[in-house]
Design brief:
Layout: E1 2-5, E2 11-14, E3 19-24, E4 28-32, E5 37-40, H1 44-68, H2 72-75
């Protein structure tokens, strides 16, 4: 998450993975993938720097986890089995991921 400031001075956290675009018109307007827009005080260059820093931190953390030898099972999300039945007699550490959901272009 990155911290940004609304024009009224309130600060909030924004998930940079949900940003579709950032415009400087002259105010900085962040548009999310769902169409929600935020007008913020930070200039466009600062937002780009914050996003790059956030992504670098994610990669560095993943690299550090690999270096420490943390097993992938620790990082696995729950309920990754293809069958979603929950039986206490079975171990939930194996299994396969469900089939991916096909994506379609949004109609204009």
């Amino acid at each position: 998450m990155i911290l940004v400031t609304r024009l009224n001075g309130s600060v909030f956290a924004l998930n940079p993975d949900l940003i579709q675009r950032v415009d400087a018109t002259p105010d900085t307007v962040v548009t999310l993938v769902d169409g929600v827009k935020f007008v913020i005080t930070e200039p466009l260059a600062d937002i780009i720097d914050r996003i790059m820093t956030f992504r670098a931190r994610v990669v560095a953390t993943a690299h550090a986890l690999e270096e420490r030898g943390t097993s992938a099972e620790v990082l696995e999300l729950p309920h990754t089995r293809a069958d979603t039945s929950h039986d206490d007699d079975h171990d939930d550490t194996g299994g396969t991921l469900p089939a991916p959901v096909p994506l379609h272009r949004r109609r204009t």
